[in-house]
Hints:
It contains 18 helices and 24 strands. The protein is of the alpha/beta class and 553 residues long. It has three domains: 13-269, 3-Layer(aba) Sandwich (Rossmann fold), CATH 3.40.50; 304-375 and 458-542, P-loop containing nucleotide triphosphate hydrolases (Rossmann fold, 3-Layer(aba) Sandwich); 391-457, no CATH class. It has a six-stranded mixed beta sheet, sandwiched between helices. Strands 18-21-22-15-23-24 form a six-stranded mixed beta sheet, with helices on both faces. Strands 2-1-4-5 form a four-stranded antiparallel beta sheet, covered by helices on one side. The chain is globular, with a radius of gyration of 24 Å. Mean pLDDT is 83; it is low at 1-25, 275-298 and 542-553. The structure holds adenosine-5'-triphosphate (ATP). GO terms for molecular function: ATP binding.
Amino acid sequence: MSATNKFRPPVSAASAGTGGARTPQTAAALAAQGITKTFAGAPALAGVDLTVERGSIHALLGGNGSGKSTLIKCLAGVYQADAGTISVHGESVPARQMTPRRAREAGLRFVHQDLAVFDSLTVAENFALDSGFPTNPVQGIRWRELRSRADELLDFYGISARASDPLGSLRPSQKTMVAVARALADQRDSEFILLLDEPTASLPEDESRELMAALRTRADLGQTIVLVTHRFGEIAEVADDVTVFRDGSVAGLGPVAEMTTPVIISMMSGTDPSRPPAPGTPAAGTDTRPAAPPSSSDATGAPVFTGSNLTRHPLAGVDLTVESGEIVGLAGLAGSGRSTVLRAIFGDTSLTSGSMTLDGSPHTPSSPADAIRSGIAFVPEDRHRDAAFLDLAVRENASATVIGRYWRRLVMNLRLERSDTEHLITEHSVRTDGPEAPIGRLSGGNQQKVILARWLRRNPRLLLLDEPTQGVDVMSRQDIYRTLRGLTGQGCGILVASSDLDELVELCDRVLVLVDGRITAEFSPDQAGRGELATAVMSAAPARPAPHEGSQN
Ligand SMILES: Nc1ncnc2c1ncn2[C@@H]1O[C@H](COP(=O)(O)OP(=O)(O)OP(=O)(O)O)[C@@H](O)[C@H]1O
């Protein structure tokens, strides 16, 4: 424990800021040159250059496995690059000598997807975990000082919470901002560079917006920010510049105004990276997605699943039906009960009342294994906690749901399992060294594809999906949507919960809106678009709960 608490807001961030105006005459805040990184002979980065201007938000985009996170980790000193130079405010370090300590001393600050914050601790304690608790030899920890400094920091970063609030009582975007404030706590004059790796991957739309607005405010006050994202809408909203990665190299870069969605996609996919934007091409974030796959509504038929009066906190009596060949969406804010519906159907949580049927027979699963035997598959939201065996090979992860297929008279047919996995890797465009690579070494989006593919192999009767494409790049999403359509063509019913409203509109035959555990509206994307759906989800939102009063001693 340190005798002094270091965290405090920058003293003159506002005066150091550009107020939104760029200062091109100043040197780049961050310049990485010729960064190369190879894993077991496979290049992850092949001579990447990145230049980030002071006080700007610089977005890094690219397909799954294109090298974005590897670059962030090389900058952080988590990985040592094989070659290249990293310069921060003009001070250069050979990239192979970068360590977490040197990165920190240089002023690089990172907020990873796993925020490393603790719900059970107060906001002030979360701050102090990084900067140390203020102490004196007689009284021990000086709680009053800790809280007042934390309150100062919260105020400075515009986070509407108090130092004594348990972190768990904050909304997701506020938690991310606490992680941001903690990372920047000891900076002065906005000289640090903040790097965020997919901060919104698991945030619902309203929360993402709030976080992006907060980051834009920081950048307008002079904060330099690097942002990894798959969400094109965010880029148009907040970024100044964009660098696009493909296969470990920079495929293109430019100011956000020039980086339209078609241009970015062509750079990501390598179809025509040098193509200039056509006149009138919409800016990034505009909906220019490829045409949706044909609706499966013609193929819908008898109910696969019915749920009546499903009740279990927060569900307060949900009725729903999924027909054969139908994709039904569940939209709602965090806490509305979307995931609970899926978990109850999967036997992962029990109902306090209500009834369910599967293909006309009562469905009363006592466990997930029970539900799987009945023909139900579930892709959960938290891949690391609930789905992926990170130390096991892609092959083992991919066959976990169909392992019985490979055992014959106590002998495992490894060759067949391997060749099936190779086929699956190709079919789902998984970027990996092969079936034997540990899944934990794949990029986040590629892990998600393997988890999804694993369940699709069972040809389920009812497929439950919770945030199925989080972290998946825009091109692979289209492949996944096509695969799901293929499944419905075989009579499978699909229930998908997603905070991505574009996804629901594009993919679903019907979308149900959940508010406070009740279905308050039903949409057919044929008749109502994203705007109407967003209005139903947002306007029905209850007033935001104030963070709880904490009970800090
Ligand atoms: N520790 C590691 N060992 C072996 N290979 C790795 C390791 N970390 C990353 N890779 C490989 O490096 C490549 C780039 O991965 P990276 O995580 O940087 O991609 P990304 O652009 O961040 O992808 P995503 O959008 O899916 O998060 C991938 O092929 C990945 O499998």
